[in-house]
Amino acid sequence: MKKLLKAFVILLSLSSRAFAQSGQTPTPQWRPVYHFTPAKNWTNDPNGLIYLEGTFQLYNQQNPFENKWGHMSWGHATSKDLVHWKHLPIAMPEKIDKDTTWRFSGCVVLDKNNSSGFCKSGSCLVAIYTADQPNLKKESQFIAYSNDGGMTYTNYENNPVIDLNRRDFRDPNVSWNEELKKWLMVVALPRDNKVRFYASGNLKKWDLLGEFGPAGLKEGIWECPSFMQLPVIGYPGKKKWVLMVSFGGSRKAIMQYFIGDFNGKTFINDNPPDQVLLVDYGDCFYAAIPWNNMPDNKKTFIGWMVPPAQETYPWRGQMSIPRDLSLIETREGIRLVQQPAALIQNNLANLSGNRVMELKNLTVKNQDTSIDRKNILQGNSYWLDADFIVEPGSTAGFKIAQKNDKDHKSLSATEIGYNSTKHQLFVDRTYSGSGAGKIKKENLLQTIDVQGNPEHIPIKILFDKSSLEVFFNNGEQVLTTYIYPDEDADNISIFTHGGSVLLKSMKIWNLSGIRSN
């Protein structure tokens, strides 16, 4: 995924400044510590996610040479806990010749039974990805195989395995389908707002099954599809198929999803074709795909957080927190639920070195109340888990990355909260500090409309130097974005306007001590 730089800018409607060569001034104050970033240079889409013998493999679109988009290759990192990442050499570099080939987005599967014939000893890894050939103005699907645990890949000598002779045809995602007893691929026809389904018995010869689309968001492009079955919580044995696609063409990065069934040929949408269901309500979550080969067929995915205009160095771009996926039944129908990966949540005490603070049953009315951190929350990398009740007619929440003057008056902060009059959850970056000047004005205030008028608001705030992910209502709504606070803007407070809020409970884990390999 991500073709020529010019096309990328047009398709995502991002300022060209976002892709200019970054300055050489290091920006450690904005490098996340518990989210994945490359050791250096540009990164975008996660690729080839595979879980293998207790290790999470993460490949990613990477420029091995510069801190801007280009030279698309597959970077590589591994982790045991989804927090500490070991950076490895480029696994699949670009090929430069008269028919230059960039390694665009794709997936990796474990070929347990050597269906491909590539495996030297029982099983091996097979990557299925898009080869972008700019000189030929063509994208087609290639495969490559690895017999050393994914450290290096050998390209199939008879590539491509699917070729429509089209300029835009990309981002294959493949998994084993037990009912078909075949490998099932979903791949995007971006400008048609469609995905295609293919099946194969050997990962080399692919047969077209059917198509889905257009539907949902249109007048842009569809990219990076994924297709999975998820359980419906509270209904044992009930599962539905979820089709996700990223959408380029708006003023922000968007992912949408569809709920339905798979009939062996194509996807049957449960909802009206014009209904739009968003994976994330922020302005930067994109290209998310799940790990293959997870135990018990669990689905955990990770997305690229599209970097805005603010330059960072010596890296640019990062991944979201890995998220566990499931479905729930709501009044509006079956909907997606995302929670930060349980592997991370259940390890917060260790990750924080037991640096955690807790509050219970605190009432705040028409004021800002600074949280007494007791030297526990030094730094802007933490995980906040809270439950509060907002009085009707009031607005309440948290101010993070807050900078105060000598009289403790707020000079800058990002507000995260709930407006009970408008029935909206929100993230407001209007007064986020000097970094707010690099944020598009139309995206400074981001909101989520809430059905009904809930008084009880459970919320998780994952703030990591510059990345911000907010999980509302136990993961029914998620909002992902960036902020770039000043180095000394690290206060946290609770605020209310027009009434009171009861903070039933709050825990904050300080994660600033995490160091990745």
Write structural notes for this entry.
The structure is a single chain. The protein is mainly β. The protein has helices spanning 5-12, 342-345, 348-351; strands at 41-52, 55-62, 73-79, 86-92, 102-111, 124-133, 138-146, 154-155, 162-166, 170-177, 182-189, 194-200, 207-212, 221-231, 239-248, 254-262, 267-269, 285-290, 300-305, 315-316, 318-319, 323-330, 333-340, 356-365, 368-370, 381-390, 395-404, 410-419, 424-428, 445-449, 456-464, 467-472, 477-482, 491-497, 500-510. It starts with a helix and ends in a 7-residue tail after the last strand. Residues 1-22 have low confidence and may be disordered.
Topology at a glance:
Layout lengths: L4 H8 L28 E12 L2 E8 L10 E7 L6 E7 L9 E10 L12 E10 L4 E9 L7 E2 L6 E5 L3 E8 L4 E8 L4 E7 L6 E6 L8 E11 L7 E10 L5 E9 L4 E3 L15 E6 L9 E6 L9 E2 L1 E2 L3 E8 L2 E8 L1 H4 L2 H4 L4 E10 L2 E3 L10 E10 L4 E10 L5 E10 L4 E5 L16 E5 L6 E9 L2 E6 L4 E6 L8 E7 L2 E11 L7
Parallel strand pairs: 1-20
Antiparallel strand pairs: 1-2, 2-3, 3-4, 5-6, 6-7, 7-8, 7-9, 10-11, 11-12, 12-13, 14-15, 15-16, 16-17, 18-19, 19-21, 19-22, 22-23, 24-35, 25-34, 26-31, 26-35, 27-28, 27-34, 28-29, 29-30, 31-32, 32-33
